[in-house]
Design a protein that fits this description.
By secondary structure, the chain is mostly helical. It contains six helices and no strands. The longest helix is centred in the C-terminal third of the chain and has 36 residues, at about 115-150.
Length: about 160
């Protein structure tokens, strides 16, 4: 890891924390919980970016980064006595694959406008982007849910 990559990952984490804080405000998260949203998003997105810079696919990097978001949210949930989705929702929004979904829609529009010669390439491009979008969204869902499902203990009924 060189110094440029470390700077890029830190910058990515900071801007993700800012975005998560803004989404937290938009979702009406109590102000005392906003730092938890920012920390979860910053570390999770920075980890995803670092793994992608090291050569992992975006799908696997997203799964690992969103799992970190899930663990951080589980910790903050217990510490601040708040529901886990308060932290996971605004933190995970920063990982949503907007560019792949956008390219999917552009490919579908291009598919309807093109002639038979270029329709094949447009269909392959749209399908590839749609599958990647679905896999990334599935990785986000699995990553933020897994820690709570595996490690959150139900309180016994006394």
């Amino acid at each position: 890891m060189n110094i440029n990559m470390i700077g890029f990952v830190l910058q990515d984490g900071i801007w993700s924390a800012v975005a998560a804080t803004c989404f937290g405000i938009l979702f009406n998260v109590p102000p005392r919980l906003l730092p938890g949203c920012a920390i979860a998003a910053g570390f999770g997105h920075a980890l995803r970016t670092m793994l992608m810079q090291l050569g992992l696919d975006i799908e696997l990097s997203t799964l690992i980064g969103s799992t970190l978001i899930g663990f951080i949210s589980l910790y903050f949930s217990a510490r601040w006595h708040a529901p886990i989705p308060v932290f996971t929702l605004s933190a995970a929004v920063t990982m949503v694959p907007g560019s792949f979904a956008y390219r999917t829609m552009l490919g579908l529009i291009e598919l309807s406008l093109n002639n038979a010669d270029t329709a094949n390439a447009a269909l392959i491009s749209a399908t590839t982007n749609a599958v990647r979008t679905a896999m990334i969204l599935g990785a986000i869902a699995l990553g933020i849910a897994a820690p709570a499902l595996l490690f959150q203990r139900e309180q016994p009924v006394a």
